[in-house]
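hey can u run this one w/ PXG bound, need the structure tokens asap thx
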Amino acid sequence: MLINLNGKLVPKEKAVISVFDHGLLYGDGVFEGIRFYSKNIFKLEEHIDRLYNSAKAIMLTIPISKEQMIKEHVKTVKASPLKDGYIRTVVTRGVGDLGLDPKKCREGAAYFIIADAISMYPEEYYLNGLAITTVAMRRSLAECLDPKIKSLNYLNNIMAKIECANHGSLEAVMINNAGYVAEATGDNLFIVTGGAVITPDMSAGALDGITRETVIDLAKTLKIKVVEKMLTRYDLYTADECFLTGTAAEIIPVTKIDGRVIGTGKPGPVTHKLIAKYKTLTKKVGVKVK
Ligand code: PXG
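ok here u go:
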């Protein structure tokens, strides 16, 4: 496997970064998770835009232009033996002295791009639905670390993941400090109630998911009403359907929340329709890697 390390393709064993890299020392950096299907990179421009926005928010200058970054992604996928896979792009503040001041990273930001396989949840959950649980760990406040920034600091989500695993569940519902539903640990959350597709408003504190946006667009083309609003756990328990969205997870049905069976207990018709549309779209669009 070849890894793109600062623009050079190097074997996995040689793709190493310094222990003085501030991405590692302080979580000072940003990242993206992107998929490619049959060598087409899905929603690449959107992911690159979000990467540069995350970097801008933390005042991190990415050393290459967006256009060059797109080319580096194409180069990395081209070098991969995989037809379908997952790309993990990371930009760190770079190598610096000890001390959290970013000025100590005099060489500037560093980046790497990995193209590899990924599996988020076992296949049976895509067929039968996932059981998820609310955790005590609250989603970070936008006033502290805005969930819109896809930073290398994922401890908020990781601790929620540990907490739900301690309760024997594979995924967590994260709520914000006001008690409203924000998202899952690495996926956005949707419900279907009265025929409408409903998802927490971005102001609830969630990542501005690219799959979330895609699903909203697909629902609209299917003439399904889409609502973005604050949701409580009561709204989840009483929904007809529920599903999670993310680049890695794609669309996964949820059939149980905190022990409450959702709808019929089986993935619902709207979820099925959106999964089918999403699959078709991933085959149709994307940046082609020749
Ligand atoms: N919420 C959070 C907190 C995320 O990190 C999503 C939602 C879904 O966003 P997209 O744009 O993918 O629809 C994410 C996505 C990984 C990894 O290991 C990345 C994510 C989630 C889980 C694992 O690369 N990011």
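Helices lie at 22-26, 44-57, 66-79, 123-128, 155-166, 210-221, 233-237, 269-284. anyway lmk if its weird
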